[in-house]
Amino acid sequence: MTGAGTDKTKTGFDLNGPAMILVEPQLGVNIGMAARAMGNFALCELRIVNPRDGWPNIAAQRAAAGADHVLDRAKLFKTLAEAVADLDLLFATTARAHDQAKPVVGPETAAREVVEHLSLGGRAGILFGRERWGLTNEEVGRANRIITFPVNPGFASLNLAQAVLLIGYEWFAAEDATAAETLTAGDLAPATKDELLRFFLHLEEELDRTHFMRNEEKRPSMVRNLRNLFQRAGATEQELRTLHGVITALAGPRRRAKKTEDKI
To answer: Which domains does the chain have, with CATH numbers?
Structure first.
């Protein structure tokens, strides 16, 4: 029976969990079932990027089976960049090899890292791709880690809600077993995805000025490799400010020289 096992006379958990980010989900029923899975494990932050059938969605409400609190608080975004801008730790769930130099972990390992990261005051999120073909290379490139589920290699495809359920279970179990730690503060705070993106654009702008990436065919992979390098580094806000300064300092003499040549 729909809703069986839900006892509204009992007090549920109110936990600080990672954001579940659905990238261009195609069916409202899958969004609703994902919300239901989130409710099972006290996850309440749902972010939806450009849902195909619009929002709000009656099919999602029906499939949520009582997880109305998740859907009511869901946030809608036009782009993935907007959806992850405030996060400083991001995982991408995928069963496909994306040929990127990026750590690949199982859901249990990812869950432990998320719990520790949140306990230190960080902001974490998990990316879930489209039902038919998952995440693009560029979308996976925004993540710090890849999560791959240990499933039958001959039948590796998971329903969207199943993937959310597996992550939710591992996170809830890890959260229950992991002690809280001291919060990180000040300049030691990890850089957010928005801060990283602004740094990437600054770096790529200067590299374009020097024609470092003049091969247009190879440019996308070069950009992706550079971004993955800094994603793995786990830079703090202060470290990014320093790197911005380094780029500006290196670009300064070149720009002054060009101004002198222009005058001559």
So the answer is: 19-177 (3.40.1280.10), 186-263 (1.10.8.590)
